[in-house]
Amino acid sequence: MNIPGEISNTEPSLPLSGYRALDLAGPMGVYCGKLMADMGADVIKVEPPGGDPMRDVGPFIGGQPGPGRSLYWLHFNTNKRSITLDISTPEGAATLRKLALASDVLLETGPPGYMDSLGPGYGGLGYESLAAESPELVYASITPFGQTGPYRDYKASDLVGFAMGGYMYVTGWPDAPPNKLWGSQAYHTASNRAYIAILLALYHRMMTGQGQYIDVSMHEAVAATTEHVNTTYNYTGESAVRCGFRHGGQFVATWRCKDGYASITTNTRAAWDDLRAWMERDGMAGDLMDAQYNDHFVLRGEHSAHIEELVQAWALLHTRQEITEFGQSNHHPWGPAATADEILGNEQLWGRGYFTEVVSPDGPSLVYPGDPYRLSEFPLPVRRAAPAPGEDNVEVLSGILGLSAADVERLSV
Amino acid sequence: MDLNCEAHQNGLALRGIRVLDFTWIHAGPSATRILSDQGAEVIKVESNNALSVIGGPASATARGLGQRHNWNAGKLSISLNMKTAQGIDIAKRLAALSDVVAENFSGRVMLSWGLDYDSIRAINPSIIMLSMSGFGRTGPWRDRVSYGQTLQAWSGFTQLTGFPDTDPSGPASAYSDAVGGMAGAQAVLLALMHRARTGRGQWLDVSQFESLSSLLETLVLDMSVNGADAVSTRTGNRPPHGGGAPHGAYRCRGEDRWVAITVFTDEEWDALVELMGNPQWADDPRFATAQGRERNADALDALVESWTIEHAAEELMGRLQAKGVAAGVVQTGEDLSRDPQLKERGFFRRVPDHQGEHRTIESAPYKLSRTPGSVTRGAPAFAADMTYVLRELLGMPDEEVEDCAIAGAFD
Which residues of A touch B338 (CB under 8 A)? Predict the structure, then answer.
């Protein structure tokens, strides 16, 4: 085991360097593994022989599936190592157990009970069994509904997690079906929460030497991320409803404008006054200059339909850029709804070194997004592209476990 | 800054860590609530001048009160008027006694108080400073201002969320604040680990725009390599890059009731067909394979809904789950409050506020076996902890406290 507080006298080159994590996660936890790997942990992705099914998830380079072409795989597995191992065989499970005992963190997303069932006769891969030999191990399980409770054996996709967590019912337009956020945000929320828990556990381990078990529920992770769904019901007795891009009919709203959509937040009296004065200059303010509308939270109130009608009609006169420039130059949080192709050219993201362009002499050049934050002590470019299946079999299985070349060959093909 | 082992034996990973917390509204307070749940002593620095902001001590609405408690449970509160020299001086003395200083003001504010990272580091060399902002404190947009929805718009989430044939809806709430809060807490925890290894603190310049952009998955990679052919439009409730049908929210019996159903494999499809009572339309060769179902998803959705509309969402969830099909009620706030799973796991907690009234808050959505964490009270009343902070922590004599009060330092 490798407890940096005790043994490391060398300068850590990255926030999590010195830690080894075994990544047995599917889509619900793949982002958690990436967060650990990008921050410097030695994350070993364990794939079945032939490769992980996530290698077949699109989009693909050139739109064509094939080895090394899944952008999903390339994105979520940066800086990880890969081994292939058939863990359904007793010997494969026994090897995985040895690797787990040589790791600091184990991350898995199997159904409750699955890890205990692996490798009968070899001690299994559940927490209790591993912790008996390695009490320092931090073992994190992400499941749809957690390890306990009446729904523990329920299945969930990203969509179902988003629905059950209460975020979906409020997202969308009142007269249309509820909708989910773009992407797999329920999965990533579970991953983000699991990562927090892992860091708390690692810090605790630095202080005490003790590992622990972490039980993360996607259902709860989403429920704790909605901002207003629970507080609205628990404190008003009313369920929040869908409001499209009006965000609860509040002072925060998005509007259709001349060339797309723009977000116009009137969070202060000054912002509201600047907005209606601009409307007035355009001859579109109607009666909004009246004193009865002076309250900057007025959109919440009884006049919301009237105000929205006037603001929407006016917003169509202006472009996203005009609205953004006017708002920002007056210190109001106004901005454009960017389209996907505009993200890639974003000057602020490039300006802060968020993107990493990896130029390949014989393949396409790729622009990788960065991590959610940088630490001033560490620069964090993408250091290594996602691995090929079993790329690190020899290094890991011989290097860490001391297996012979013949054993590696037998176990991983 | 007590890093001894004993403090860590009692179920709190961050006991002994003190956070001087200038954050307000949503993202910042939700980051420090994560730390407070694990035993960090979080001292909120509040001001009479900002009582009624979202999550502020005088949040005017019932929902605002809920947000106040949900994001600030377990913290302490002091009032400091940072327009006075005494207020600033007290803040500096507290920074000297803290492990972490957290703030989410615009870029000029902490500097104007002499509480920017370099100044604090001069009085507390191992300080960890968390600065959360919309766009980060460097780069051409460092002075731009944003709310959660501004960042959602700018990052593309607004435009990408919704059905292809209608206006985008964007996320219903401030996803970017929740994401920023999680990122802020992660960055602090990484910095605490680094400090434990090296003794050094650092500055954490968290751009919520970057935190949110990191959840755009393959979007940037896709645009960079596939250009105009990249999938970059709204796909409603279907995964942007395919993978399964039916995959959506289906209307159920009752008013605005919906069940989310996702089918990926033939086995799941067969189970669904059986539950639907083997309707004749399910034999349509268009639906015989996963690819066929995906290609004909619009037609399939309408047919599936002709079945779901006859049933209660809860009933369908139970029956589908019993057959191994991922399905769930599209739950409302009321549904969540009664959710038997959340109840069994203690997700909602009732904690007393300063007047002894019980308030409902959310728990951390993870369970750590050794350090389960603990939250035993709601958000503090405004300036509730002046005595503890001024007398016990800073050891200020009566006369000095009085002088500061006369100078308006606590207004």
Answer: none
